[in-house]
Amino acid sequence: MSKLRTIELTYPHSLIVDELPESVAAIGFFDGIHKGHQKVIGTAVSEAKNRNMESMVITFHPHPSVVLKKDTTNVQYITPLREKQEVLQQLDVDRLYVITFNEELASLQPQEFIDHFIIGLKVKHLVAGFDFSFGHMGKGNMNVIQEYTRGYFDYTTIDKVEMDDEKISSTRIRELLRDGNVEVVHKLLGRPLTTNGVVIEGAKRGREIGYPTANLKVNPDAFLPKVGVYAVKVHYKNELYEGMANLGYNPTFTPDRKDPSLEINIFDYNNDLYGEELKVEWHKYIRDEEKFNSVEELIRAIESDEKKSRNYFYG
User: Where is the Riboflavin kinase domain (predicted)?
Assistant: First the structure.
């Protein structure tokens, strides 16, 4: 597997066309890189292999709504940029272009966009979903793209991909995550939702009650599932561990907390993890977060959470 090379571009870019390799490119925002996105990207990768060219993904950052909708200041992503890079590496993509989405880019006419970011990046074959649009006000789309190719490239349009008679989409995945339905999200992504974070010092209450936890500082751009307790798996130093996670406000001890915390209890593991990076896989929603009247009540609930989580993983 070749290593993914990431290049960040802002309009106008200064890359010299003659110095670039001929490539087959998949283009889109690709938040989540779900099974629909994978069909677009996989088509580009296999077409590139057939043509003996580089495979490329062209994507954008930040989300267009941050620029186009005045009331949106930030967006949380199912796959923040780093997670997106990790998945694209696994999909055997050679090169990733991340184009800065700003007002200047949004104001380009469709032909200007194609000239600069498709022909200007030496793309010989373009793959996109049926609903991909480009250029000012989305005037360009896959129905009319032939008008803009100038004979330099050809293209493939991928129809919508469905599961259970419904289109697989980032919007659908977000709705499922708001309901805590990480198991269906797993099916739509073809892999579990993952969240990366660094272990920071916490209040150490878990240790006192027999359930030590790793408190994760998570990228604020990451879209997290709904508050609650989950069965999770944890990647740490090329090992995979089972455990459970509490995502929430810890109302039993910190009733005034404003921001949710993510605490992981790794089963049968008790080493110091401060400063270490973990990747959490979300596998099953166990219950909502509750405020308990006593520590004893909390411990009984955690014991039940552990039993349910272990049963989920080990049967």
Answer: 188-314
143 within some domain: yes
Residue 96 belongs to what domain range? Answer: 5-166
What pTM was computed for the model?
A: 0.93
Q: Looking at the 3D structure of the chain, how many domains does it have?
A: 2
User: For 262-307, what is each residue's pLDDT tens digit?
Assistant: 999 999 998 889 999 999 999 999 999 988 888 899 999 999 999 9
Beta strands 23-27 and 214-218: pairing type? unpaired
Residues 230 and 154 grouped into a single domain: no
**Span 62-90, pLDDT tens digits:** 988 888 887 777 789 999 999 999 999 99
Q: DSSP secondary structure string, 190-248? A: TS-EEEEEEEE----HHHHTT---EEEEE-TTBPP--SEEEEEEEEETTEEEEEEEEEE
Cα 290–chain centre separation: 28
Assigned token pair, 46: 């296999």
